[in-house]
Write a structure and sequence with these properties.
By secondary structure, this protein is mainly α. It contains 36 helices and no strands. The chain starts with a helix and ends in a 5-residue tail after the last helix.
Length: 688
């Protein structure tokens, strides 16, 4: 007895620790490792190595562009965000329901990026990557501290960090809400693990704060209190020591926050029209699609093929397919419940997966997608827990297969990493992203539309763009965006203006209250002689729908300048455009012209110089500034501006003409003047 007390030994202490961790049979003793090897296998070094590999794989995003799907709304074309951190911007972030979402912390994070990096897209991508790495580290820290199971924790963290299904959340700037909310999610789990070991008000407050941060980044994490209850069962095993009354009672504030966030999100999304009515997507189809989606998501974890940025909603789901998926879900649920005592991680992981997908599984349909890879960013961790601890359990029972199993696991991890590298590459720009989506899916009208939008910007590829717009409309004839953007491409070709106007009309029949469609229709009408009054009516309609629409104010101001007697009204609209967007180059340019016509030359020159600061490569702004400088008697400066315009656009007839006129009054430059006037006539033989 005395000897036992002197050396209570390791035996009793190890037994207690195994009971507390609870889930796995004791593994076979590992062979002794030299000190250096043990150092490299310590959890901190394992986590650091995983983070470095993840950074190396995702580091390519620092060269990537913004994409034309949601990125403009959230960052590149959002005036509140582009100006960085401002008092007005902070107020907007906390009160805005733009893009059918309320996530002030996400908006503030985009503003901070613009504050420090402007619109350098690579830095915005790297911020996403930073939060992804932080979430990975917190996930590993929570699992290892809660279980002391090194390699299962590593495998879960690896799958989270480097699975192809998670590429969308990390490589898409607009999905900052995913990586930011996941950071707070896993911070809350880590904080809850600390609280579970030693409860206290400060530790509970950290859980609450992390949860609040996550809700303000993306409300999808409303399921966190439910997951904390699961973790109380395993791996924290608080149900063995604390009663269910206490466990449930301490979650009441968390559930209250979830309810408030869910109600707020529904009101914002319903108010914006993002929540689809039951008519377009009947409840029966939603249930069928949800059942299929649960199985598809799980299958893609094991076979991540044909991933795409958008999956169109199916017109119908075969009843047998939905029924089979329902049976599969029910079967797995029964099996994991039956194994609850022996393998609690199976039930916890499965319930984590099923529960965290509920807000986005489509029973309340938001948007037009059937499912989305980004929705697996947090839920997949539940499946990964099942796989990792299940594998560890099997290896502990059958140690002879361990070398082969380790080799297979290493090969699988290497393959997943390679697939992730390739999948990341598709996000380099909009063209590669949506070309891949067209190739990987069928009937993907959105991919055709967004690919066409990019092709339309490339000289000589407008016919290809038109064919993709037409493909989108064949799939979905009432597709507003395709009608609108097809009209935009056609309006840039004079002979296609009637068809462009027809496309804008079709768009307005689908969405009569679209300010953008009214604006674009007005722009097309303004190019047709005699139809300027109709164009002005469309601009005014756009402003009735959206009074704070800078582009409509600018276009209306530009049109009013051409009507005698309406110059003051034109100036008023152009000034309104600049109040809304102070760096709006086109509005500065138009206002400079209008002020010049009004004889307010110093102000005109100031605005034209501002136009050039905002858009230094604008030949038109150089030419207009040259005209204003000539009117002010500053001829040498005017000549310099005309020459700058011609360096940018050598065939710019008006700049040749203006430069020729200016040089005619300069002693010894008559020959140059004649040469430029002849060039103007060659470029445009029928000057007005």
């Amino acid at each position: 007895m005395h000897k036992a007390r002197v050396n209570p030994g390791g035996g009793r202490k190890s037994t207690f620790r195994a009971r507390r961790q609870g889930s796995l049979p004791a593994p076979a003793p590992a062979p002794a490792l030299p000190p250096a090897a043990r150092l490299h296998l310590r959890p901190g070094w394992i986590c650091l190595a995983l983070l470095l590999v993840t950074f190396a794989v995702y580091g390519q995003v620092r060269h990537f562009d913004f994409v034309n799907f949601d990125d403009p709304d959230y960052t590149s074309s959002n005036p509140h965000v582009r100006h960085g951190i401002t008092l007005a911007g902070i107020q907007w972030a906390f009160t805005s329901g733009d893009s059918a979402n309320w996530f002030p912390l996400t908006r503030l994070s985009h503003m901070l990026d613009c504050q420090f990096f402007g619109l350098q897209s690579g830095w915005h991508h790297l911020t996403n990557l930073f939060f992804h790495l932080a979430a990975t580290g917190l996930l590993f820290a929570f699992l290892y501290r809660a279980t002391r199971a090194r390699w299962p924790s590593t495998l879960v963290a690896f799958l989270y960090a480097l699975h192809p299904l998670h590429v969308e959340s990390v490589a898409w700037v607009a999905e900052r809400k995913d990586v930011l909310s996941a950071f707070f999610w896993f911070l809350a789990l880590w904080a809850y693990g600390r609280y579970a070991r030693r409860p206290g008000p400060g530790r509970y407050a950290l859980v609450l704060a992390a949860f609040c941060g996550g809700l303000m980044a993306k409300p999808m994490i409303v399921t966190l209190p439910f997951v904390l209850l699961l973790l109380d069962v395993w791996p924290l095993r608080r149900t063995d020591t604390a009663g269910w009354g206490k466990i449930l009672g301490e979650k009441i504030p968390l559930f209250a926050l979830s309810a408030a966030a869910a109600a707020t999100t529904y009101m914002v999304q319903a108010g914006s029209g993002a929540v689809r009515a039951l008519g377009p997507v009947p409840i029966g189809l939603r249930i069928e699609n949800a059942l299929v989606s649960y199985v598809v998501y799980a299958a893609k974890m094991f076979w991540p093929a044909r991933l795409a940025v958008f999956y169109p909603y199916p017109p119908a789901v075969p009843v047998w397919e939905a029924a089979l998926c329902g049976v599969a879900i029910a079967t797995v649920s029964v099996l994991v419940v039956r194994r609850l005592r022996a393998s609690p991680y199976l039930a916890v992981g499965w319930a984590w997966y099923l529960g965290t997908l509920v807000p986005v599984i489509g029973l309340v349909q938001v948007g037009a997608q059937a499912r989305a890879d980004r929705y697996m960013y947090v839920p997949m961790a539940g499946l990964a827990i099942m796989v990792a601890w299940g594998a560890a359990d099997l290896l502990a029972r059958y140690p002879r297969v361990r070398p082969a199993a380790i080799a297979v696991a290493a090969a699988a991890c290497a393959i997943l990493t390679a697939v992730t590298w390739v999948q990341i590459g598709y996000w380099e720009n909009s063209r590669s992203l949506f070309q891949h989506a067209v190739d990987a899916t069928e009937g993907n009208y959105l991919a055709h539309q967004n690919l066409a939008e990019e092709l339309a910007k490339i000289p000589g590829r407008q016919p290809e763009a038109i064919s993709h717009y037409q493909a989108a409309l064949r799939i979905q004839p009432d597709y507003f965006d395709a009608h609108l953007h097809l009209g935009l491409v056609l309006s840039n070709t004079p002979g296609d203006l009637p068809e462009a106007i027809s496309q804008y009309g079709a768009a307005l029949r689908i969405e009569p209250d679209s300010a953008v469609a009214h604006l674009d229709l007005g722009n097309a009408l303004s190019k047709i002689p005699g139809r300027l009054p109709q164009a002005i009516s469309e601009y005014q309609a756009a402003l009735r729908i959206r009074p704070a629409y800078a582009e409509a104010h600018n276009s209306l101001g530009g049109a009013l300048m051409e009507i005698p007697g309406r110059l003051p009204e034109a100036i008023s609209h152009l000034e309104a455009a600049l109040r809304l967007e102070p760096d709006y180059a086109a509005a500065h340019n138009n206002l400079g012209i209008a002020l010049s016509q009004a004889g307010r030359l110093p102000e005109a020159i100031t605005h034209l110089e501002a136009a050039l600061r905002a858009s230094p490569d604008s030949a038109s702004a150089h030419n207009n500034l040259g005209i204003a400088l000539s009117q002010a008697g500053r001829f040498s400066e005017a000549i310099a501006e005309f020459e700058a315009a011609l360096r940018l656009a050598p065939d710019y007839a008006e700049a040749h003409k203006n430069l020729g006129i200016a040089l005619a009054d300069v002693p010894g430059r008559l020959a140059d003047a004649v040469a430029h006037l002849e060039a103007a006539l060659r470029t445009r033989p029928d000057p007005e």
